[in-house]
Amino acid sequence: MTHISSRFKEVTMEEIPDITSDMVDKLRKLNINSVYQLAVQSPLELAMVISNAYFDVESAGKLIANARKILTENEILSKDFSTADDLLEKRSKISKYTTGSSNFDTFLNGGFETQSITEIAGEFGSGKSQICHTLCAAAITLMENDSLDANDNGSKQRSPGSIIFIDTENTFRANRVYQIAEQKNLEPEDILKRIYHCNVYSSEQLELLVDDLPKSIEQYNAKLVVVDSIISLHRAEFSGRGTLAERQQRLGKMLNKLRRYADIYNIAVVITNQVISYADGSHPGFDYMKAAGGNIVAHGSTYRIFLRKSGKNRVATMEDSPSQPYQRVKFSISESGIQDVTSYKTEEENSGW
Ligand code: GTP
Ligand code: MG
User: Fold this and answer.
1) Which of 22, 157, 288, 304 is in the most buried spot, having the most CB atoms within 10 Å?
2) Ligand 2 center–CA 326 separation, angstroms
3) What number does CATH give the domain 13-73?
4) Nearest to 126 by CA among 273, 293, 343, 346
5) What is the pLDDT of residues 258-271, one digit of tens each?
């Protein structure tokens, strides 16, 4: 039986302005079962699946706007136009999920944020998956008490949050999360029970999974979604020049959806990205590295972190952030996941890295 977390039952679809019971039935048949799930739809796609002569993109747009309106009225979503103090209030609902490495958390301004997509890019072995594993172990304890749900008899109960881990490279290792949790004196058995892992083998499967993610977010009361990596399948399947535009369009759609989910469900989304090497001619024979996926991925992410190897350590650079300066942090990878190697220093202080 599908259990929908009571966190998402506060407003029912019947309460959406101007909605008919016939439309509610249609939506349920399409497996759209909550106001949240309707609010994250795109008008074009909804109009296509409903495929009714009287229901065009405009009607779909109105319906979705009404779903958003009722979430806004219930102060779950911010208004289309919000005053800056409302925005500040919305930001006060943000949770930050830490890695347990205090330098890395300072570098992130407190941790991986909800309502945002954080991209971690870097070459093979640079530590992208290790950061994701460390985050899985460390973040769960912070999700323990941050949602207060009404249970069936109306009283409030603490509902533990969970993590959805979408693995396109088959590199998630439960025993690694167990080891990290154990080293951090956390409770590995409890942590593993709250990580919902899914292996994905094709770009199409990934896109379908992202389409359906709202149901899983509600079902598992997820607070963090990790996609490791967002690009590998699309990169492998759309390799020719002629297919680049389609690949970018499909990546863009997925990122758009993930951004909507992050915002509406107040969840953190962490994606990893690969790199491409390029030569700019200034240093003959030397290749630079940059994140793959071009502008689509760059603009789709709220924060972009670039990793590189530095001897036996790693250096993370905050390449793009709406609120933080360009900065770097050094870390290492050990039995307890990612960990500090030096006391925290600013970019200028570390200019020799
Ligand atoms: P790709 O997925 O290949 O692009 O790389 P990635 O950036 O995800 O690399 P990943 O996070 O898997 O880092 C791999 C590196 O982490 C290895 O080369 C090891 O140096 C280090 N590592 C992984 N597990 C452990 C561990 O249990 N202990 C220690 N000390 N290091 C580890
Ligand atoms: Mg990896």
Assistant:
1) 304
2) 24
3) 1.10.150
4) 273
5) 999 999 999 999 99
Residue ranges per structural domain of the chain? 13-73, 94-351
Which residues 6+ apart lie within 8 Å of 95 measured at CB?
113, 114, 142, 143, 146, 223, 266, 268
Q: List residues near ligand 1 (CB under 6 A).
A: 122, 124-130, 169, 171, 333-335
Cα separation, 248 vs 66, in Å, equals 30
242 Cβ contact list (under 8 Å, min separation 6)? none
What is the pTM (predicted TM-score) of this model? Answer: 0.85
> For 109-135, what is each residue's pLDDT tens digit?
999 999 999 999 999 999 999 999 999
CA of 126 to the centre of ligand 1 (A): 7
Q: Residue 351 above 70 pLDDT?
A: no
94-351 — its CATH code?
Answer: 3.40.50.300
More confident residue, 120 or 85: 120
Ligand 1 mutation target, pool 123, 126, 130, most atoms within 8 A of CB: 130
> For residue 112, how far is its CA from the centre of ligand 1 (angstroms)?
20
* CA–CA gap between residue 251 and residue 243 (Å, rounded): 12
Distance (angstroms) between ligand 2 centre and the Cα of 347 equals: 26
